[in-house]
Amino acid sequence: PGSVSAAFQEYLQHLGLQDFPCGLGSWNKSRCNARRSPRAQPAGLEEAWPPGEETPEVLLELLRDQHSPWALPSDCSPHAQRLREVVVLAPELLHGSRVSQLVKSLRILDKGVEEVDEGLLQFQQLEELIVSANHISRVTSAHLPRTLKVLELCYNDVGDLQDLCAQPPPELQHLGLGYNKLCGPSQEKHLTVDFWPNLVSLDLSFNSLTDLLGLVSQLTTLQNLRILLLQGNPLSLIPAYRGFLVDSLPKLSILDDIYIWPEERQQFQGLAGQPELIRSEARLVVSIGEMKGLPNPEDFQQLELGSEGPLIACSYYVTYEF
Questions:
Q1: What UniProt keywords apply to this chain's record, in alphabetical order (predicted)?
Q2: Which residue has the higher pLDDT, 58 or 153?
């Protein structure tokens, strides 16, 4: 599937919502017809089920019993199980796009998705959208439900935040952009309170951000920010990196998955007022312990001493890519 909506439809087929014991069929036909044409049930009488049909309790048991052939695999999410149970109780929800209105959490991982399409707006109750490990390079904020609180886009190809920040969900609390293609300094301007007034957690790890001072100047506007991940960016190689962030963002609780204790904050106190300590360069020491698969130059030197033939010279070089 190329879009989130297409991946969701494929997911629904995987859940078997149209098939027994979910959906609408001979196993619950009279019950669904009764809902369309309600009739008063005489007081004191239990509802009678026609032969060949099953009660909702029996159908739910078929879904919940781990030994049942209709049970979901153990690695399926609780949301998937609840969705199947809701459809058993109200199979009429399968008509149109009513199922999507029940979904609060949507996880589509490694499905080849390339587009967050407009069809996502039919998820009117969606609070969590996780579409990591796909091929998404651009996210249009107009296609995101306004109810969204968690947006996870890790392991994609996002290189620009302009479209995402045009009309971002106002209640968003977590934004995950780790392992993408963000590079500064043009992206820092999109990480302010003007776009993310309620942001608590921000993951920018393993991108190509280089401007630590510029980034910090924008992040200081996020008054609710408590969790920040920046590891894996070139700027994290700066010697004063952690201390400068800890002192610049006094409300931060966790930096790069490490809790900030009061003793550490006291240790780095005053560092935010010394931006001259932040150099735009880093020193990296690379040690090569052993190289395999190359001829030993000493073998050629021994041959040269008593050789009357032509001399052979070999040289090698190592290339590092950053």
A1: Leucine-rich repeat, Repeat
A2: 153
